[in-house]
Design a protein that fits this description.
- The chain folds into 2 domains: 2-178, hpI Integrase, Chain A; 197-349, no CATH class.
- Helix 1 packs antiparallel against helix 3 (75-87).
- The longest helix has 29 residues, at 321-349.
- The protein has helices at 2-23, 27-31, 75-87, 89-95, 116-131, 147-157, 166-178, 188-211, 218-226, 236-248, 284-288, 300-314, 321-349; strands at 38-42, 49-57, 67-72, 215-216, 252-256, 259-263, 293-296.
- It has 350 residues and is of the alpha+beta class.
- The strands form 2 sheets. A 4-stranded antiparallel beta sheet has the order 4-7-6-5.
- The chain contains 13 helices and 7 strands.
- The chain is globular, with a radius of gyration of 24 Å.
- A hairpin with a 6-residue loop joins strand 1 and strand 2 (49-57).
Length: 350
């Protein structure tokens, strides 16, 4: 029985990690969740269904009962809540309560809810050992209950999610939901964290575009031709000019894994709106021919890998004609982008 309870506790820990890192709620807000907290709504445009996690914000609320709030919940969070609901059934029935984090071990204070300090001990003790948490610079990494919130803000604020693998799809879903006109957020602190990360992300992208010698894409070539910082290191003058762009102009710069978007609605091949690029039609092929597109050496690996994948596809003897034409077109797109970057590199060497 102890072995079963140990595994149940690790499931609780894992569910906390999933929710914290993919929702961005505080520990008090996660531990306050109740059964039936997941709801589904259609997007304003009717193209997607978004799930929401209904709970309460306590830290910034006026009263002790907290302020109602709903967080966007990607599918892994929906699954984690379903697991919590199943695990908590016996205690919820026994105690006639609907909280998801009821535990007999925490009932000495009369609340019956797992506390933050106890959760931190569990994360750094049995949970870290159970999952084989790797060392960081030769030392154990200390897990805290607020790391998920900060990491969430960082990755949602970032537009380049290269290397995040499957996590990138979930974060992209969250980003689309947060910009949907039907979404109203009340977690203003989290919004501020995300906005700060987005500003840092945009600043880094602008500095890369302004200083890169090797630039491709229609917008990239235009910026490179007029940038007085091309080939320079990122110094005070560059930072000052970036400040000017961010504060005094209406330039909007979008990021994705495969390049930058110097966004203008009237020339957007993705048919974006006033809010920015259209995530439904924003693909590598659409961007490659768009007047707003720019690419630097930092994006070369993405295009090289895409070129390799399509070349391997073309080598398949059973490939049908339609698929072969599509793979050929994509390979040619990659060749053109890589050729632009290589041409710049050769001119520098010469």
């Amino acid at each position: 029985m102890k072995a079963v309870q140990f595994l149940v506790s690790r499931l609780y820990d894992a569910c906390f990690v999933v929710i914290a890192y993919l929702v961005g709620a505080r520990v008090s807000e996660i531990l306050g969740l109740r059964s039936g907290c997941i709801e589904r709504y259609g997007s304003a445009g009717g193209t997607e269904t978004f799930c929401y996690l209904n709970g309460r914000i306590y830290k910034t609320a006026i009263g002790p009962g907290g302020q109602p709030h709903r967080w966007i919940a990607p599918e892994p969070v929906v699954r984690a809540v379903a697991v919590l609901e199943q695990l908590s059934v016996p205690l919820r029935q026994q105690m006639l309560r609907d909280e998801l984090w009821l535990t007999p071990a925490a009932d000495r204070d009369g609340t019956g809810i797992l506390r933050s300090a106890g959760l931190t001990d569990r994360l750094n003790g049995p949970f870290a050992s159970f999952i084989g948490l790797p060392l960081h610079d030769g030392l154990p990494w200390h897990l805290s209950t607020h790391q998920g919130r900060k990491t969430f803000a960082r990755f949602v604020g970032r537009r380049d999610r290269t290397g995040l693998d499957a996590l990138a799809a979930h974060l992209g879903h969250v980003t689309r939901a947060m910009t949907d006109v039907g979404y109203v957020g009340t977690d203003h602190d989290l919004t501020d964290l995300i906005d700060a990360e987005a500003t840092r992300d945009t600043r880094a992208a602008l500095e890369d575009l302004l200083t890169s010698v090797n630039v491709g894409g229609k917008a990239g070539r235009m910026i490179a031709a007029h940038s007085r910082f091309r080939g320079r290191t990122r110094d005070g003058d560059v930072a000052e000019y970036v400040d000017y762009i961010l504060e005094e102009t209406d330039m909007r710069l979008g990021r994705c894994d495969w390049g930058y978007c110097v966004y203008r609605r009237e020339t957007a091949s993705c048919l974006g709106d006033d809010r920015g690029p259209n995530p439904v039609f924003r693909t590598q092929s659409i961007c490659a021919t768009c007047s707003n597109f720019a690419v630097t050496q930092r994006h070369r690996p993405i295009w090289a890998e895409r070129r390799k994948q399509n070349a391997e596809l073309l080598a398949h003897p059973m490939l049908d004609g339609e698929s072969r034409a599509l793979a050929t077109a994509r390979a040619e797109e990659c060749d053109r982008i890589l050729g632009e970057l290589q041409q710049d590199r050769k001119s520098d060497d010469g």
